[in-house]
Amino acid sequence: MANRYRLSESGAIRAAVDHLDGAPAPKLVNRDVLRLTGEVNAVGVNVNQLARQGWAGAAPSVARLDEATAALLRVVKELSA
Fold first, then answer.
1. Cβ–Cβ under 8 Å, residues 53 and 60
2. Which of 9, 23, 27, 69 is the most buried (most CB within 10 A)?
3. How far apart are CA 65 and CA 56, in angstroms?
4. Whole-angstrom Cα distance, residue 43 to residue 70?
């Protein structure tokens, strides 16, 4: 169970006991989805910062948004290849 679900030994033991008590088996972690979600969140954080700067009357720095967007596109291209 530890290898199949990528759990530590103690996590596998807890999951096995929970499973015996009727709980469903743990879900597999899709690391690609986690990575993509992180990149999307990075773009969202930068958009929020730009909006806050704009509402505060400051000139927003678009460079960070460009960097985050480029990183997101790299991950998308890598995962779609």
1. yes
2. 69
3. 18
4. 9
